[in-house]
Amino acid sequence: MTGNNQQPEANQEQKLDNIKELGQLEIPAYKSDIHCLTITGQIEGHMVLPPQNKTTKYEHVIPQLIAVEENPNIKGLLILLNTVGGDVEAGLAIAEAIASMTKPTVSIVLGGGHSIGVSIAVAADYSLIAPSATMTIHPVRLSGLILSVPQTYEYLDKMQDRVVRFVVEHSRISEEQFRELMFRTGDLARDIGTVLVGKDAVDYGLIDQVGGVAEALRKLGEMKNSEGMMQ
Questions:
Q1: Residue from 107, 114, 127, 138 carrying the catalytic annotation
Q2: pLDDT tens, N- to C-terminus, the chain (231 residues)
Q3: What CATH number has the domain bearing residue 69?
Q4: What is the pLDDT of residue 45?
Q5: How many angstroms separate the first and last alpha carbons of the chain?
Q6: What is the model's pLDDT at position 153?
Q7: Strands 55-57 and 34-44, how do they pair?
Q8: Which of 107, 115, 119, 171 does the annotation list as catalytic?
Q9: Annotated catalytic residue 171
Q10: Residue 61 lies in a domain
Q11: What integer pLDDT is reported at residue 151 of this predicted model?
């Protein structure tokens, strides 16, 4: 009797959790061979951000990527991006991990893929951007107290070179064009940099295609099939 009573209570708790977390009673049961990774809010690195900030923690993302790479039942990775950027080294770590995967990877920028989010977007084998989504390209900056000494400038310069080199190697944009967008004045209020909207990112060679979730899944399916034929 006790066991029978516990089962309905457990089901009720599960339904309440679904409503609280996802806004719906039941989650459609479908076993897919595609893993969906979402990178939203601010990418959190070595410093813990305030609790009111929506963050993506790199120490949570990288183990997921390792699990996807090792799992034989997962045939492809879809990366959904809506991020303002964040910690440069954490973002580069995620981007490098994605770029080094052997399984097909497709990224799609929904809403925004700003700052170091650009590196993560181009790290995938194929990248898409929604027509209304934006990407902000600007120089590397530090927040907080910094020492105004030559070593600080050299550190920033080297970090910036790492970002530029990665983006250029994983997209069709040239280094000269990317740096020109990065240091362009007038496109950002009280700042330097450039905002690219949808098709602009494709025209510059940063992103491969304008499209949505359907196009991203279709492309990932094609890549899975072609890889299966090669094997």
A1: 138
A2: 445 555 666 667 776 676 656 555 565 566 788 999 999 988 887 777 777 778 888 889 999 999 999 999 999 999 999 998 888 889 999 999 999 999 999 999 999 999 899 999 999 999 999 999 999 998 876 554 444 445 555 667 788 889 999 999 999 999 999 999 988 877 765 567 899 999 999 999 999 999 999 999 999 999 988 876 555
A3: 3.90.226.10
A4: 78
A5: 54
A6: 54
A7: parallel
A8: 115
A9: no
A10: yes
A11: 52
The number of distinct structural domains making up the chain is 1
Q: Is residue 8, in this structure, part of any structural domain at all?
A: no
Cβ-in-10-Å burial (0-12, 13-18, 19+) of 18 comes to middle
Domain around 112: 31-230
Q: Is residue 13 part of a domain?
A: no
Q: 23 in a domain, yes or no?
A: no
Does residue 115 carry a catalytic annotation? yes
Could you tell me the sign of the dihedral formed by the alpha carbons of 169, 110, 198, 194, in that order?
A: negative
